[in-house]
Amino acid sequence: MRPLLALSQAIDLLNEKIGYICNLLVLLACLVSAGNAMIRYAFSYSSNGWLEAQWYMFAILVMFGASYTFKRNEHVRVEIFYLMLSERGQLWLDLIGTLFFLIPACLLLAYLSWPFFYQAYAVGEMSGNAGGLLRWPIKFVIPSGFVLLALQGVSEVIKRIAALQGYVTIDAKYERPTQ
């Protein structure tokens, strides 16, 4: 179980680092938005590239922030039923839901979105707007975001199995296994 918990810890660390980058992107997106608006109104100048960069940052926040949110146990769930279960029942529900729904759905979506990215990459797709950005880098965010979420699902499965076997307990606030 120790090698699996080490793998879980590595995945958690990866998504923690990505979450930190996403937190910085929130600030950067706000600064770009405010700067773009001020320049547009003060100098009557606007750039589609900056507007698209703002959209790209938001897309990265959503797609990469999902795995970080899942790691922190801040995701949406139907608490009405979940809270009625014992701690062991909650672990089983998390395990079954992640193993049979989240991970397969994420892997399927990553697989289905790969051709969407690859086609854009193969033709060097650019924005149709004047001064717009390349499109393929942001289209790569879609499959990679789903892969990161699936990886975090694997980490959560490992932690739930370890908790069910008594190797660790789960800190409810941050989903960190404690030994």
Q: What's the count of strands?
A: 2
Beta-strand percentage range: under 5%
| Rounded mean pLDDT score | 87
Query: What helical percentage do the residues reach?
Result: over 70%
Q: Which structural category fits the helices and strands?
A: mainly alpha
How far from one another are the termini? 12 Å
User: How is the quaternary structure best described?
Assistant: single chain
Shape annotation = elongated
Indicate the radius of gyration in whole angstroms.
20 Å
- How many discrete structural domains? 1
Protein topology:
Elements: H1 2-43, H2 48-71, H3 79-82, H4 87-123, H5 136-164, E1 169-171, E2 176-178
Antiparallel strand pairs: 1-2
Family: Belongs to the TRAP transporter small permease family.
Transmembrane segments: 20-41, 53-70, 91-114, 134-151
InterPro entries: DctQ, TRAP_DctQ
Quick tags:
76% helix, 5 helices, 2 strands, 179 residues, mainly alpha
Task: Describe it.
The structure is a single chain. With 179 residues, the chain is mainly alpha-helical. Helix content is 76%, strand content 3%. The chain has a two-stranded antiparallel ribbon with strand order 1-2. The longest helix is centred in the N-terminal third of the chain and has 42 residues. The protein is elongated, with a radius of gyration of 20 Å. The two termini are 12 Å apart.
